[in-house]
């Protein structure tokens, strides 16, 4: 995998994580491509788990 592609997917994951921490719905994913969407949703799910376990309190 090229570094440029990996960086783009890492950015999608990070943005998904931030969206999850902010309480946004997973339907708010801005990505249409399968890879980027999957990484965004993965970050979103991680954030939701962190919120539910109490790591982040708003």
Mean pLDDT: 89
Quickly give the structural class: mainly alpha
Q: How many helices in DSSP terms?
A: 2
Q: How much helix, percentage-wise, in residues? A: 55-70%
Gross morphology: globular
Kindly provide the radius of gyration, computed on alpha-carbon positions and rounded to a whole number of angstroms.
12 Å
Measured by DSSP, the beta-strand proportion falls in: under 5%
Q: Provide the succession of SSEs.
A: HH
Give the biggest beta sheet: none
β-strand number:
0
Question: Ends: how far apart?
Answer: 37 Å
**Regions with pLDDT < 50 over 5+ consecutive residues?**
none
3D structure, described in words:
This protein is an all-alpha fold and 58 residues long. 66% of the residues lie in helices and 0% in strands. It contains two helices and no strands. The longest helix is centred in the N-terminal third of the chain and has 19 residues, at 3-21. The relative contact order is 0.21.
Summed up:
This protein has 58 residues and is mainly α. Helices cover 66% and strands 0% of the residues.
